[in-house]
């Protein structure tokens, strides 16, 4: 109980500071520490840690909402990585956070290729996937949806991808997807170039099925 006076230093109320000091003093000075008084002191300890946990949890939720509102994909990913998840108990702290599905979309990168002497300008998208399963991934099918700053669909398509992702690894796709400028008519490039240039294009990737090296296929 020697830590009780120290806890009292962090309490905003004078009454709480005094109560914790008294609990600690009764132990340090060897006074008689009867059961009713012990129950009161333990109650104060539990109340303190409950309030502290609530403050930490509220701070975490605030940081999480701020990251979710970040429009730039790279900044949003870095923001989420920097947020520390407060454990609600010692047991939960030892348990890793598992994704909703064993193979998931991790990151998407946009790039712009300027027009050359023999090539037209184009925009590229390269996805990265994470394999949290204990099996090697050899192929997957995913649905790709790219929206602008207003949330309007620009691209909605389904793609098959042959990719090797060892168990427990995060791998960038060896293949990228591109939309090229068509000088003769308006194309998807014209709708993509603006949002990508301003960093407002958002890629949403939903994995539909995954093929593993052992021959099994999982549908999501």
Automatic annotation (TrEMBL):
It comes from the Bacteria. This is DUF4352 domain-containing protein.
